[in-house]
Amino acid sequence: xxxxxxxxxxVAAFMxxxxxxxxxxFAATYFEDKTVKIEGKLVQFLFRNPHSFVHIEAPDETGAMxxxxxxxxxxxxxxxxxxTRETLRPGDVVTITGNPGRNPxxxxxxxxxxxxxxxxxxxGGKPGEVVD
Length: 132
Known about the structure:
Layout: H1 2-22, H2 26-29, E1 36-46, E2 53-59, E3 65-71, H3 75-79, E4 93-100, E5 108-116, E6 122-124, E7 130-131
């Protein structure tokens, strides 16, 4: 009986560890100690789990237009903060502040804050903060 319980505990520990290992570290992909601000036109909003993405056409540091992939929270998390799949639409002009990706050629950011000029909608500044 004790042997069976020990085996079950070991199996459970390995399964839990595998799940924790499977989720990537943001620090491996993004510089968490730096921020970049971009302003441009929303091309696509992917409202999904485990991470939503906002795709923006905006100039890079040289002024050349680029398509930026901005990683955001999952649909469940954002939904709990008042963001829905209808919140952002293609053509919206937005200003995004985010942590830049470690490979500059990827034009990736991790969302820190978002502001829409047309109506002043905002998200972020503090984790999970929706600003109207």
